[in-house]
Amino acid sequence: MNETSNPLEVGQQYSMELIDITHSGEGVGRLDNMIVFVDGGLPGDVVEVEIKNVKKTYAQGKLLSISQASPVRVTPDCSYFDQCGGCQIRHMSYPGQLKAKAKMVGDALQRIGGFKELEVAPIIGMEDPLRYRNKAQFKLDRKGMGFYAKRSHQLVHIDDCLNQPESAAAAIKTINALVQELNLSIYDERTHKGYLRGVLQRTNLQGENMITLIINGKELSQRQAIIEGIVAGIPNVKSIYANINREKGNVILGKKSLCVYGAARLVEQIGDLSFSISPNSFFQVNSLQTEKLYDAIKSAAALTGTETIFDLYCGTGTIGLYLAAQAKQVIGIESVGDAVLDARENAGLNQIDNARFFLGRAEDEMLKIIKDEGVKPDLIVLDPPRKGCDESLLQAISELGTPKLIYVSCNPSTLARDLKFITEAGYAIKTVQPVDLFPGTGHVETVVLMSRVDK
């Protein structure tokens, strides 16, 4: 590696070895004791880079050439990888991806949380890391459907996606043809004109498809022709929806969805449970790994049948319902009204009568339930969004003194931040279990078990 005593200069070329990777797929190296991020680089690569930007504590380099390839570097199996923003690390072998993701979790816990000696369990990966997604949100223009390029709103047109089920190729081909044959206008964010805004495909493990057309209108125009075209072109279509989104901007789904063909819901199986899915439902996008994730939560919980569980940020209730058979009762709290309705419907669908779901902010509703019902949780499960938990909720939990906590996170950085708060409030981390739900990307889920420390 060439190092120089001079500060890094924009436009200059340097040779360097990369030693790490970020969740967004940037290789990481050091020059002049400054971190350099290199898009497309991998740990173990020796590369030539051109410095494009220099900040106070880091620089960004453009990858010019690779003089020595990383042992985990592979030829991407997707021809769109260099353009499409859907994947970040498809140029990395799958064992290499798993190792990198486990390291991301461990590094965040050490760097942000200050947990120097914490052991991270081996990550749970997929047997086959292809075609795992049960949900695709396609953008489109007059030339066809696709996904946005990395860090832009430039559309990359695709014929297929290896993260999606095989029926995705038929969906792309069919919708593209209908746009041309029926002369459907395409929505323009700048002018707020045009009809078709996007296409949502949801697919369950049985290969059944729900197709949702997102429209800037009050109803589905050319309804019969569209229905006939979709049913003829896409295999096993169980539902077709029109989602009404007349809002300005790039929000994908509107609040109102009209079922124009078939069943109102798609049913997915996770373990022994069935879950009802609508276009707007939140549901983990990898059904196979979701079962492994929930099994990891169940294993950490080690339930005896006597426990009261509070499932906070419960979404559509999937985690709480998965644990309900081994608990005395489950109380789920969620701030999104539609999700609470889905959770209650899923409880009924599975004939689970010891799970209840409440609408409200977790910290407020939790304390209200405790006061009104005189019940306290034996276990709290936290599954917050990427931004992590509100500090007010963490403070309320720490004051409760609940014996056992399980934190489920999709963001190692906010996980580490929140764990630091929780441990300083009197909890000890017992286990850290990463689970890979998103092969080809830099995302990783983590299940952390904590227990109250007697003072």
Would you write up a description of this structure?
The protein is 25% helix and 31% strand. The chain has 455 residues and is of the alpha/beta class. It has a seven-stranded mixed beta sheet with strand order 8-7-6-9-10-11-12. The protein has a seven-stranded mixed beta sheet with strand order 17-16-15-18-19-21-20, sandwiched between helices. The N and C termini lie far apart (51 Å). Helix 1 packs parallel to helix 9, helix 2 (167-181) packs antiparallel against helix 3 (223-233) and helix 7 (362-373) packs parallel to helix 8 (391-400). Residues 1-5 have low confidence and may be disordered. The protein contains nine helices and 21 strands. It has helices at residues 94-111, 167-181, 223-233, 287-301, 318-323, 337-349, 362-373, 391-400, 412-424, and strands at 13-21, 26-31, 34-39, 46-54, 58-68, 135-141, 144-148, 155-157, 196-203, 209-215, 237-244, 256-262, 266-270, 273-277, 308-312, 329-334, 355-359, 379-382, 404-409, 427-435, 445-452.
